[in-house]
Design a protein that fits this description.
about 100 residues, alpha+beta, two-stranded antiparallel sheet, 6 strands, globular
Amino acid sequence: MAKDFIRGADNKLVIRGGRFVFEEADEQGLRILAMSEPGDFGINLLLGGRLKRFPNARGTDISKSLKNLKLQLDMDGWKKGNVSFANGQVSLEGDQ
């Protein structure tokens, strides 16, 4: 499990009791990776899931997007990374 500063629904850092919240954040890490664009991370400029573009995808574009997300999980070091799409929902799973 990876730990990180927790972000709220508005993407701002969560503060509790006057302190930043720092706790397990695997789900948050998956969400940030999926929604990012290549170039967002200075460590690896190719990293970025581009899921923001997914709502406009059709047919083979959806398949390409899912393959790209799986590749992004692998590049970021996620073990057992899995991406699936059913009932209009994209699911990401993995262990950091």
